[in-house]
Design brief:
globular; two-stranded antiparallel sheet
Length: 230
């Protein structure tokens, strides 16, 4: 006797590639964290990119402020609830769990890293990595993984979709953070990589935990059936 399991939140065809990407992203986070530990000045790349993006005027500043608001509690909470609702409507409870667990762990990791690295901007404001960018990228990854599973995309198409969604969300939020002077460009890169490192691992844990919970009742029923036949 078998029990139907919910679709995996991380399609099996993507696990190897996403695992490799997660490992590389984690390495980038660590390297940048070491390079800018206890720093309070922009690096060479930060200065060049920041000078081109910082201080935008209307209407771009309004767009940047609106984008930034989506990473604040008042804007982030409705986004999370809305995506959870979509996941449940599409009968993908694992994706709904990933929205909460994955996004929560991503933002929590970014917050912890800020204290560990100690990089600051505008005085004592901890800046590395960007929590706003990590949050936006994490949400985009959930949506992309859900779409990949629903559309039945293969390894190549699914991987490209996941990376494109992460890049689009990370670039949009990252631009807003640099344009508003809230973060250095390398903070944004660190936030983006934090999400790429945390989300695949969390998705794998969600799938593994759900599979075990699904298998246990089936195993118990099978054992009971064997005992009765004896």
């Amino acid at each position: 006797m078998t029990r139907r399991s919910a679709p995996a939140v991380v399609p099996p065809s993507l696990r190897a590639w996403l695992g490799l990407i997660a490992a590389l992203a984690a390495l980038v986070v660590v390297v940048l964290g070491v390079l800018f530990a206890d720093d309070s000045e922009p690096g060479t790349v930060d200065a060049r990119i920041g000078s081109a993006l910082y201080g935008v005027g209307p209407p771009w500043r309004h767009i940047a402020l609106a984008t930034d608001f989506l990473g604040e509690p008042g804007g982030a909470a409705p986004l999370v609830i809305a995506i959870m609702a979509v996941c449940l409507l599409l009968r993908s409870p694992r994706a709904a769990v990933l929205v909460v667990a994955g996004v929560g762990l991503t933002v929590g990791t970014a917050t912890l890293l800020k204290s560990v690295v100690g990089r600051t901007i505008h005085g004592e404001n901890l800046s590395y990595p960007s929590g706003h960018t990590a949050f936006a990228t994490a949400l985009a990854l959930v949506v992309a993984l859900l779409a990949t599973g629903r559309l039945g995309l293969g390894r190549t198409a699914g991987t490209w979709l996941v990376l494109a969604a992460a890049l689009a969300a990370g670039a949009a939020m990252g631009w807003a953070q640099v344009a508003l002077g809230a973060h250095y460009p390398t903070d944004v890169l660190g936030g983006w990589c934090t999400a790429l490192a945390v989300m695949p691992a969390t998705g794998w844990l969600v799938d593994r935990t759900a599979d075990r919970m699904t298998d246990r009742p089936v195993d118990r029923m099978a054992d009971a059936g064997r005992r009765q036949r004896r």
